[in-house]
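Researcher: Good morning. I'm working through a list of sequences from a screen, and I'd like to move beyond sequence-only analysis. For each chain I'm collecting a predicted structure so we can compare shapes side by side. This is the next one on the list. No need for commentary yet; just the structure.
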Amino acid sequence: MAMKEFVEYIAKRLVDHPDQVSLEQEEKENSIVVRLKVDQQDVGKVIGRKGRTAQSLRTLLAAVAAKDGKRAILEIAD
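Model: Good morning. Structure tokens for this chain:
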């Protein structure tokens, strides 16, 4: 649950419509898939220029997941 809250905290501070941020978490064998949904107008802000913001989010999520010995995958949807 800490991973989901972590991503939600960061995403809400990046977007213009924080009330539209929602996350779904699905656990598989040794990995966790986190689906981040934001308002259509905020997708670019979450992805960032050349995908740098999204890549940074994925790196941070992977570090948090590694503490639990798991692999994390971040999917961004509008």
